[in-house]
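Predict structure. Input: CubicO group peptidase, beta-lactamase class C family, 465 residues.
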Amino acid sequence: MTKYIIFILSVSFLGCNNIKKQETQPLLEYNKTIDSLMQISYKRGIFNGNVLVTRNDSIVYQNSFGYTDGSLTTELTKKSIFCPGSIAKEFVAVSIMMLIEKGELHLDDTLSQFDLDLPNWSEKVTIKHLLNYVGGLPQIDYDNVKNEKDILEDLQGVTSLLFEPGTDFNYNLNSIFLQQKIIEKVTKKTFQEFAKENIIIPLGMKDAVFDPDFDYPNRTRSFDIYKQNSLEVYMIKGILWTNIEDLNTWITALHHNKLISRESLKTLLKNQYFENKKAILGGTDDAYTMHRHGGESYQFGSVFISEFENDLNVILMSNHKNQVWEIGHSVFDIMKDKTFILPKKSIYREIRKKCLDNINEGIQYYYSLKESDHEIYSFENPNELNSLGYDLLSLKKVNQSIAIFKLAVSEFPNNANTYDSLGEAYFIDKQYDLALLNYKKSLELDPKNTNAEEMIKKIKNNIIK
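Output follows.
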C-alpha cells in the first residue's frame, strides 16, 4: 500500500472542555496533511460525509465532502445529521449505567423483574448479560416483525434461549430493545424522554434527534453506488441521529465522566465475558487509553477513534458506506505522527455491477484491474470481496455469492473469515459437505472462531447423518 510519513513538532495544550478554534502553526500542519488525505479520498469516491478532528480545546480539522442524498443536489454541511448505526446504542447502555449508579437498577437484575410477560428464561437473563450480548437471545426476526409491538410479542413467544446465559456470544438488537424497555419500566418514561432529559439537553446537543422523518431539517439519506437512496426502515424506535459536532460533544462528555463514572465506562468498554468479542461501546485497549467504535445502517457508516490522554477525537460520518474505518485510522495515525496509509478505491464497488449482470465477466474484470491498476484499488483488503459476497447473498444470488467467496478464498488462503463466509453460502445453498469443509478450514486457521465451531456441530448433529 502507498504510505506517507510526516514529521510534526509536538505541542502541549491546556485541558478545556469547550471546543474552540485555534490557529497554532503545528495544528495547521496537521490540518493540511489531513485535508490532503480527505481530498484524495473524496476524489477517489471512497468518502462522502463529514469529518471532525479535535484535540483538547482545539478543532484540528473539520470539513464536509459530498451530498446529503443520492440526488447529488444538496451539499453536506457541518449541520447535517446522520444515523450513526451501532454508535447510537451507546446512549442506551449509558442510560442503563446512569440508572445503576443511582441505585434504581443493578447489573444482576433479571428480565423477569420488569413485568414484560416474557417466558421462564427471563428469570436467568440479567442486565449484565444484555449489555454484553451473552443472554442467549436470538436476533430480531426481521422477516416477520414490523414494529416494536411485534418485537415484544415475538420475544414473548420464544420458548428457549440459543444458549445458557453467559456461556456464548450473540450480537443482536433484541438486547438493545430490552434495555430500552427496562428503562421505560423503571423511569415511567420512554427511553427517548429519559435520554433527552438526562443526556441531550444537559450536554447541549441541540441538533440531535430521535427517529427523524425523511423531511426533517438537515437529515441525510443514505445512498448506494448507483445513487439510489436506501429504504431506511427502522423497526426499533429510539435511534439517535446526530451531526458530527453533537457526536463529538457526546464522546467528550463520556470521557470526562460527566454522565457516568470511569469505572462504569470501563465496564461498557470491554466485554465482561469474552475477551475477543465486541463491547456495547465498541472497544478499547488493555490499558483503557482509547475508545473506538464504528456503526453501520443501510448505507450509513460512522466511526470514531479517541485517545483519553490528549482528548483526541477523530470522527467520520458517512451516508454512502465509504471506507470510514480505513480513513479514520489514517487520520488518527497522522495525529500521532505515524506512517499512515492512503486508502485506495473500492474494488467491491468497481466490479459490483458487472458481477450482478454476469458473474464470470465480473471476476474477469477483477483480474484485469488487478493487473493494470493494482496501486489504485484495494486488492489487499479481504473485506472488499467478503462484502460483495454478502451483498449478492442478500439479493438471493447464492450461486454468484459462492463464486465471489471462492475468489476471496483463492486470493486470501490464510484468512479464516473468507472460509467462514464461503461455508455460510454453501450452507444456505444446502451443499452441506462443502459447508462443513470450509467451516473446518476456518476453524483450523482461527481456533477461536466460535461461529465455525457451532456450525460444524450443527451440520454434523442435525444434517449430515
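The chain is about 45% helix and 10% strand.
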